[in-house]
Amino acid sequence: MLDSLDTRLLALIQQGLPVTARPYLSLAEQLECSESEVLQRLARLQATGLIKRFGVIVKHRRLGYQANAMVVWNIPDPEVQKLGQAMSQSACVNLCYQRPRHGERWPYNLYCMIHGKSREVVLQQLAQLIADCQLQAYPYEVLFSRQCFKQRGALYPLNTRVSSQLIPA
Amino acid sequence: MRVRIKSVYSMLSELHKQLLNNFQQNFPLTERPYLTIAEQLGVSEASVLQAFNELSEQHYISRVGPVIKPNHIGCSTLVAMAIPAQQLAAVAAVVSSYPEVNHNYERENDFNLWFVVIAEHAQHLQSVIAEIEQQTGFSCMQLPLIADYFINLGFALEW
Q1: For residue A42, which of B27, B137, B73 has the smallest C-alpha distance?
Q2: A-B interface: how many C-beta pairs under 8 angstroms?
Q3: Architecture per CATH, B75-143
Q4: B79-94 pLDDT, tens per residue?
Q5: ipTM of the complex
Q6: What are the residue ranges of CATH 1.10.10.10 in chain A?
Q7: Which chain B residues touch A66 with a CB distance below 8 Å?
Q8: Checking DSSP bridges between strand B61-68 and strand A140-151, what pairing results, if any?
Q9: CA-wise closest residue to A13 among B152, B155, B73
């Protein structure tokens, strides 16, 4: 479980680790705890899996990965877990989620993201994914992104109570 | 486009590329993490700090930080809307104006506006979505996560 210091630490660090020689010390000073406390808590939050990964968050569009396809699949419910796990093993898949269907207009229940430097590359990777995971029988749609109106990486609204100014806008 | 991509990469040094690719997970939890990285790469701490500043200033990275497991803090959902082309920009601007909206994309489909809303709790989430519907006059299809199959190891960049 998260205590108030965990929450305040996450609220701070999700805005970015300072680029200074002792970044954890500077977080510790803001949180009024010790540097070793910050380090131990970050290690624990990673070990428990609440932090899925901790490190550099790249802007893939800026780095030349302009083609970004969300592929949505209509998979029979009993098979969705197995196929979701199989797709996640593919090097070209960046995210893979099960989500609810919405009737006939939106019958899709499995979503995966493929990023590539061009549309052609993404479509080739999709063809490979279909072959590798034997997805030929399942209806799908490919939704390439057009414009990005807003992108700032997931920032969670952490209620820090003690220091409300730390809640990320 | 190809020319632009090439020029993007030509601005990146070997050090930039190593920082981008090798430290997306397991960022050092040491008192001087940038020194730890510097020692691994055989360069100075100052050059690592400078390179990270450059990557941020040039918008190649958004930050060094945690990727938090979805739906374990707060409450979030993916939302899709079907908006006529002429109204898309205006509706997208309304959606983006909410601080609870983290990203917001146009995609090629009848459902052409896709965004993620993250709020402190379910009630707040639903009130944001209701407000968006009210303000724009279009309905929101909510697609909350049921299961996450992906183990996030970062984004493998090829140069």
Answers
A1: B27
A2: 253
A3: 2-Layer Sandwich (3.30)
A4: 999 999 999 999 999 9
A5: 0.80
A6: 4-57
A7: 1, 5
A8: unpaired
A9: B73
